[in-house]
Amino acid sequence: MTSPNRRGPEIARGLAARLDERGGLTVERIDGDPDPTADGTLALTVVRPGEDGDALVAEGYVQPDRVRLEFTAVPDVVAEAATDAGLRVRPKAVRPPRTLAFVEDADEVSSAADVVAAVAGC
After folding, report:
1. What pTM does this model have?
2. What CATH number does the domain containing 39 carry?
């Protein structure tokens, strides 16, 4: 059984590996072994390369028992795709608005990667 203090970093590593397999996305790993915090430690960013430069799709923050994905674009698409994938979702009231999706188990990594890819395709 994985300790709750290590589950978040393990999920982050699995998510980064799964996203690396997706064409059209660039994953920057900020820290290969992030130290989880209650507020979340930035562990990865996902961008979609484009002619006008890279567009930020999501940031992944590691908490002790999960990864919090903060999506920066198309909040309605994120909310629908993440809900359909069975992830817990909530809006973040900032400017510009963000949508949060929580990856709380290694079994949700594939679903979370699908959500990121769907959002990147918009």
Report:
1. 0.85
2. 3.90.1150.20
**For residue 6, what is the enclosing H or E element?**
helix 4-20
* Four-residue CA torsion sign, 66, 35, 39, 94: negative
| Helices 109-120 and 75-84: angle between axes, nearest 10 degrees | 150
Q: Give the pair of three-digit tokens for residue 68.
A: 């919090």
Q: How many residues does the chain have?
A: 122
From residue 103, give the alpha-carbon distance in Å to each of 65, 82, 88, 110.
Answer: 9, 10, 8, 10
Domain residues for the domain of 67 are 4-120
pLDDT digits (tens, 9 = 90+) for 82-112: 999 999 999 998 888 899 999 999 899 999 9
Q: Which of 105, 109, 116, 103 is nearest to 27 (CA)?
A: 116
Q: Report phi then psi at 49, rounded to 5.
A: -65, 145
13 closest CA partner among 84, 119, 103, 114? 103
